[in-house]
Specification:
By secondary structure, the protein is α+β, with helices and mostly antiparallel strands. It contains 6 helices and 8 strands, in the order αααααββββαββββ.
């Protein structure tokens, strides 16, 4: 499922979605005016969109608690549930998820979509949670079920020093474009259109959770609150 992948294809893929994201970000940032000011004209923008998004997100994310229900009322089941809660709490604290969740929910409300990446850090031996920019994610879904992801590409940019430290590669420019390509079976790492690593997916699943703000019928991507 990764053999026919070409990094250059991502530039043309999802162009309508990317344009929509840019327009929505302009509205949230209060720079949606079209054209330049005319001589003598003064423009005043009341950014109600940003105020509403931030307030609703703050309200939504307040008071969230992790609760694991025991499978039954036995002492062993209750203790197992409490251990699960403590493990989840360590993940929350170790990744600063309170702040990350808030920022990701703002993204989701504005753009209509958001994502998490959840992997195992082999050096620190802990669960590592991040929220990649949805503008750098591309998904291929199953034809018979648009909610199922069969392949995912994550595209992002690193400065030269970071690329060299992480992947021991040199880039010709001032930055390196990195693409992670995932299926449940395979993983590929591309840097500046060059395949530098290919191996079996160590997890057996795609370690991303891509979710919509509000999914429209028969669609994978979501609807922004700004709409």
């Amino acid at each position: 499922m990764t053999d026919n992948f070409k990094p250059g294809d991502l530039i043309r893929r999802d162009s309508d979605r990317m344009r929509r994201y840019r327009e929505l970000l302009d509205i949230y940032q209060g720079i949606q005016w079209q054209g330049r000011e005319r001589p003598g004209e003064k423009r005043l923008t009341f950014n109600y969109a940003r105020v509403i998004i931030d307030k609703l997100t703050s309200y939504l994310m307040s008071g969230i608690k992790i609760v694991v229900d025991p499978s039954d009322d036995s002492l062993k089941a209750r203790e197992t549930a409490r251990r699960a809660e403590r493990s989840l709490q360590r993940v929350i604290e170790g990744n600063g998820l309170d702040q990350l969740d808030f920022e990701t929910e703002v993204d989701c409300a504005v753009l209509g979509d958001a994502a998490y990446k959840v992997v195992w850090d082999t050096e620190q031996r802990r669960v590592c949670v991040s929220a990649p920019d949805i503008q750098g994610l591309h998904v291929w879904t199953r034809g018979d079920d648009n909610s199922k992801v069969r392949r995912l590409a994550s595209r992002y940019t690193l400065d030269i020093d970071s690329a060299r430290a992480l992947y021991t590669v040199k880039s010709k420019g001032k930055s390196a474009t990195v693409i992670e390509l995932w299926t449940s079976q395979d993983f590929q790492l591309w840097i500046d259109d060059t395949l530098v690593e290919q191996k079996a997916n160590p997890y057996g699943f795609i370690p991303f959770v891509v979710f919509p703000n509000l999914r429209e019928p028969k669609q994978f991507w979501g609807l922004s609150d700004l709409i």
